[in-house]
Structure formats: C-alpha cells, structure tokens
Amino acid sequence: MLCGDVPFGTRTETEKLARIMAHFGFETMPEPDRLPIGRRLRRLAENVLISLVVFAQNAGALRPDTLSRVRLPIYFSRRLLHEKFGDADEATSFAEVA
Tell me: the pLDDT tens digits for 74-92? Predict the structure, then answer.
C-alpha cells in the first residue's frame, strides 16, 4: 500500500483534491475534526515551515490561510496496485526478457 499525508489548503480545497486523487485511484480518509493537542501543535509547526519555504521561494505566493492548512491522508491499496500494474513476479520476468 502507498500512503501519504498531503498538506493542502482549506477544507474546500481539500475536497477538490480528494476528487482529483480519486480519479487516479487514491482513496482518502477524512480525519476527525478534533485532534489531540500534540498533533495540532505539530501541524502548526509544519505549516509555519511550509510557509517559510514558500516565502523564501516566492513571497507573492504566500497566502493568509497558509497557517491553517489541513491534511488529506491518501492511500493506494495493494489490490488496486495489482489491478493497475500487475504482480511483482510479472515485472521481474519482463525485466529478465528485456
């Protein structure tokens, strides 16, 4: 399984991203609205770091809502990997032929 925790924008932008990711086969799992304080502090620190990187690269792209980014956990299941890309054995046998 492939998974990631995508920091994106606001909740409405996250819903758009979820639809786009679903088009490519990723599944999303909404997080609870209320997270433990430790997790919220870590996310705030990550948002500050992301904002500083954006500011350093392109200050004009920094938006006021960057400190309130939400995360979108995405998953690509093993079953779907097999359906789309086949078995690892098939890939190995193809590499041996080539």
Answer: 888 888 878 877 776 655 5
Give the domain extent around 92: 2-97
CB atoms within 10 A of CB 74: 19
Taking CA atoms, 79 is separated from 26, 42, 53, in Å, by 12, 32, 36
Q: Residue 51, by phi and psi: left (phi above 0), alpha (psi -120 to 50) or beta?
A: alpha
For the full predicted model, state whether its pTM sits above 0.85: no
Overall number of domains in the chain: 1
Taking alpha carbons only, the member of 34, 65, 39 closest to residue 50 is 65
Rg for the chain, CA atoms, rounded: 18
